[in-house]
Structure formats: C-alpha cells, structure tokens
Amino acid sequence: MFYRLMKMIVAPLLRIFFRPWIEGEENIPTEGAAIMASNHLSFSDSFFFPALIKRRVTFIAKAEYFNTPGLKGRLTAAFFKGVGQLPVDRSGVRGAGEAAIRSAIAVLDRGELFGVYPEGTRSPDGKLYRGKVGGLARVALATGAPVIPVAMIDTEKVQPPGQVIPNFGVRPGIRIGRPLDFSRYHGMENDRFILRSVTDEVMYEIMRLSGQEYVDIYATAAKRQMTEDKKRADAERKAAAKAEKAEEKAEAERAAEAEKAAKAEQEQKETGSA
C-alpha cells in the first residue's frame, strides 16, 4: 500500500520538479528475480531509484527505522515502507549481515527485484568506493539471480550530504547496465576470493556507467579519515587563531610599554630643561 502510494504521488512530483531521466531500462527483466546493484550518492537515491523503476525494488534497512516511537518514528517508518525498504534486525555479532542475506534471498525467491548499495553507505564526496564483500556476492551466488549494475547520476547535486532541502534546477538520472551472470561461480559463495572477484566486477561496471572516480578503499574508512582530517584542521585553525590572538596581545603590550617609556623620557626631558 505504502509503495503504491509513493509511486502514485511521489513519482509524478519528482518528474514534474526534477525531470529525471533513465537509460537502459530495457535491461531490467519484466518478471523474475534480479539484483539491482547501485552506487549511492545521496539520501535522495531512496526517492529517485524506486520512483523511476517500473517494477517494485526492495531494499533492506535497519529495524530501528521502523520501530522508533513517536510521530517522527511513525513518519520515518512510513517513508521507508513507501520506498520499498525492508526492516532487518541487526542484533548479534553477525546479525546485520546474516539477516540481510536471508531477507534478500527471500525477496529473490519470490521472483522480485532486490536492491543493494554495495558500498554500504553514501559516498562522502561523489567518488565511487570499494564494494563490501559478502552480501551482494553471496546472495548472487546462492540464488543464481543476475546482477544488474545501476548508476545514479547527479543525485548528490540534488541533495548533498547533510542538506535537507533539495536543490531544484538539477536534472538527475539513472543509467542501467546489462545483467551480469555469475552462474559460473555457483556453489562457491563461501570462497572469499570469489566473493571479492564478483564484487569487483560489479563495481567496475558501476564505475563505467557512472563515470565516477574509483577509490580502492571502503567509504566508511574514507568517512572516518575525512572526520579525522576535519578535526585536525579545526584544531589547527583554533591553535593558529589562539597564537594570532596571543601575538596581537603581546604586540599591544609592547606598544603600550614603548608608549609608556617614550612618555617617561619626554617627562624627564621636560623636567631637566626646567
């Protein structure tokens, strides 16, 4: 119900205000299971992705988005249901990964589309980061479902990280590549080298479609580094400002002392001449 409402209300509004474009939609099968693997540039991906795809696409999201109390919690839950996201209990040491994989397999077993962001989080700077080994590749090998690479284009310009109000006048888009078949690796979903190979092949196709610069580290590590760099830069700015303030104070004191000495010398001259 929520998903249909989103398609009926939100999708037309997005088309009116942003005129988003889509290429390669013919690469999405009209029926049957498939994995939609996309880059992740902005929170607005959660609007444009499901709005422009004709078939329903189911993503996973942490359960906290669905069971937070209060009006804000209910609105948040309604939104995530509306954009086709599925709650996953992330409790336990490996709870997040295993629960997500089970949920993904269940979606694909029903012959539906399952959406995933292999980077695991939004790109902090518009670049494409290393795909996480595990979820995407394991699900693909366990189910035999084709993986369809997807490139979100310019959605970070519509809504940059940390910005609530979107920028109008930007025309975002989606570019969809041809399905990737990994049936040659069937039964090898526990081989980490195979999982890395599958993930890297998908990320290469996403990079080719999106035109993004590729960075061979995880986006989470890049975010941590950026946070540390910002803290260090802030500390350096504060230290520089403090040093500048201390220098200004010292300069003022030196000027005051010089003025005091000059005044005393003048007074001494006047006393001597008298």
Specify Rg, calculated over alpha carbons. 28 Å
Q: pLDDT under 50 segments (min length 5)?
A: none
Shape: elongated
Query: Structural class of the helices, strands and pairings?
Result: alpha/beta
Order of helices and strands: HEEHEHHEHEEHEHEHEH
Q: Whole-Å distance between the termini?
A: 102 Å
The quaternary state of the protein chains shown equals single chain
The portion of residues forming beta strands comes to 5-15%
Largest sheet, in brief, is:
7 strands, mixed
Give the spatial strand order of the biggest sheet: 1-8-7-2-5-3-4
Summed over residues and divided by their number, the pLDDT gives a mean of 86
The total count of helices amounts to: 9
- Helix proportion of residues, in percent? 40-55%
The total count of strands amounts to: 9
Descriptive notes:
- The protein has 274 residues and is an alpha/beta fold.
- 53% of the residues lie in helices and 14% in strands.
- It has helices spanning 2-18, 45-52, 64-67, 70-82, 95-109, 135-143, 155-158, 192-210, 219-273, and strands spanning 21-23, 34-38, 57-62, 85-88, 113-116, 128-129, 147-153, 173-176, 214-215.
- Strands 1-8-7-2-5-3-4 form a 7-stranded mixed β-sheet, sandwiched between helices.
- Helix 1 (2-18) packs across helix 2 and helix 1 crosses helix 4 (70-82).
- It starts with a helix and ends with a helix.
